[in-house]
Amino acid sequence: MDSTLPAVAEELLKEIRKAFQETSHVPDDLLLGDVELLGILDALLRISENMLKFIFGPSAVPALDLVDQRSVTRVVSPSGRTAYQVLGSSGKLYTCYSSCHFCTCPAFGFTVLQKSESLLCKHILAVYLSQAMGACQELTVSEEQLTSILLAEEEDEG
Amino acid sequence: MAAALERALGPAGPEADASVPEAPLLVLGPAGSGRTALLLRAALAGGGDGPRALFLAPSAPSRLPEGGGGDPRALQRLELRYPPTLAALAQELGAMAARARPPGLLLLDGLEHYIQGGPSAPARLAALLLEASRAPRPPARLLAALRVPPPGPRVLPVLRRYFPAECRLRPLPGVPLRVNVRLVLPGSVPRGWRLRFEPHGGLNVTPGPGDGDGDEDEDGDGSGDEG
Questions:
Q1: Residues of B whose CB is below 8 A from A143
Q2: Residue A91, number of CB atoms within 10 A of its CB
Q3: Does A156 contact chain B (CB < 8 Å)?
Q4: How would residue A43 be classed by pLDDT, with cut points 50, 70 and 90?
Q5: Any chain A CB within 8 A of the CB of B92?
Q6: Contact (CB<8Å) B120/A109
Q7: What pTM, to 2 d.p., does this model score?
Q8: Does the keyword Chaperone apply (chain A) (predicted)?
Q9: CB contact, 8 Å: A61 with chain B?
């Protein structure tokens, strides 16, 4: 198991990104009535949610909750380095790296690294989903601050 | 980085493929097996025309190499820095992206020195290196060396998540200054070389067998070869 997503997961995220981009650009004259549109969107989301659960297991629903709560922030430094901070359900702030799978949460260290029971934790999945759905908040920091964020200590379960 | 290693060591044995895919590379070997010499040789491969190289280690090597292939210009593109702690290393890596001319080659010696903290420490260190190597545009090639046996039973499996390619150094028992090198790349036939370290600091390289000898403990972690 490596530190990047398998192809099937990449494809699913691409489809989710495409679906969100397409629905945000539907011309007004093609829009259905509100109720019909909500029904179709609800069906699409259920399909995506089931596929997410199938591929990512128990992390899927908690990750979707984090996305709904707009918990993911993309942090950028002047040189273009990035990292992600995710406000967890317990109120703790976790750091996820951009270029590979790493998260400071206890579940990543235990379930992913030690036990290899999951591909990734809910925070990393929330980052992927937030990227696909355009749901990341944005924050610009200095180079020193970004380095501090990348060195943030692993958080204990709270 | 695997291609840079092959440029440093020359063509491997007859079972080698035609091309070496680039991937972050982990160099493993016990104390005295030549990890530092191999990294420096990879840094200087290509002579004066090679990429700018940043070599990081917790302390200075006991001996610096001659210019790559006899070309003194090779040393001019090599930058050596010695961050003593993980925090200092992170600062060095962070500064890479902000440079006007970031290095094309990133080498870290002494991984075991920087693995500090909890069970996720090896993953954090590997992730920091990958972030730093991918932040400049174009990305830098990454090569890191770890002394085996590693500082903990989970270190190697975790590092292997982040380093798809691996180069194993194995000193020949009873034969001083002779080391077998085996390069393992995902989806490729293993490649091999034989190294002979000269008393005055030179290094003699010849193609060698790429296959291992079976179940020997190549990782030095006491649990047999994990692949």
A1: 94-95, 97-98
A2: 7
A3: no
A4: low
A5: no
A6: yes
A7: 0.81
A8: no
A9: no
* Contacts of A103-106 spanning 24+ positions with Cβ under 8 A: A104/A152, A104/A153, A104/A154, A104/A155, A104/B120, A105/A154, A105/A155, A106/A154, A106/A155, A106/A156, A106/A157
Secondary structure letter of residue B142 according to DSSP? E
Residue range B52-71, pLDDT digits in tens = 899 999 999 877 765 545 56
Q: How far apart are CA A51 and CA A9, in angstroms?
A: 9
The better pLDDT of the pair A43, A81 is held by A81
Task: Please state, rounded to an integer, the average pLDDT across all residues of chain A.
Answer: 81
* Residue A39 confidence (pLDDT): 64
Q: Which of these, B61, B7, B28, B60, lies nearest to B144 by C-alpha position? A: B28
Asked whether the beta carbons of residue B123 and residue A109 sit closer than 8 angstroms, the reply is yes
DSSP H helical ranges for chain B: 2-9, 35-44, 73-76, 86-98, 111-114, 121-134, 155-162
Q: Does residue A97 belong to the interface with chain B, where contact is any CB pair within 8 Å?
A: yes
Burial B90-104 (b: 16+ CB within 10 A, else e): bbbbbbbbeeeebbb
Structure-token match 């491969």, residue found: B45
Report the complex ipTM: 0.79
